[in-house]
């Protein structure tokens, strides 16, 4: 399993950037997302930025990762607080699956 880590661009030079998460800086490959301005959030997998994300999305991912860490440590955590964006929300099917479901009902 590969987890995406949200990191913020500190400096950018060509197809690489110095990015930071929790005070730790990493050299990140930007080949898939292109050069990014300082302050931009990117979702990083195995040393490469795969997606440009908003600060709100970065916070959601960070909270989800905190929840996973808490569960792995066996700590009782209010997971609803860490997954607030999912509480009281019905899952939505992607459009291509909705179409498939509707055609199978007909």
Structural write-up:
With 106 residues, the chain is α+β, with helices and mostly antiparallel strands. The chain has one domain (5-82): SH3 type barrels, CATH 2.30.30. The chain is 31% helix and 30% strand. It contains 3 helices and 5 strands, in the order E-E-E-E-E-H-H-H. A 5-stranded antiparallel beta sheet has the order 3-2-1-4-5. Strand 2 and strand 3 (24-29) form a beta hairpin. The model has no long low-confidence stretch (mean pLDDT 88). InterPro entries: Hydgase_assmbl_chp_CS, Hydrogenase_HupF/HypC. This is HypC/HybG/HupF family hydrogenase formation chaperone. Belongs to the HupF/HypC family.
Q: Could you give a quick summary of the protein structure above?
A:
With 106 residues, this protein is α+β, with helices and mostly antiparallel strands.
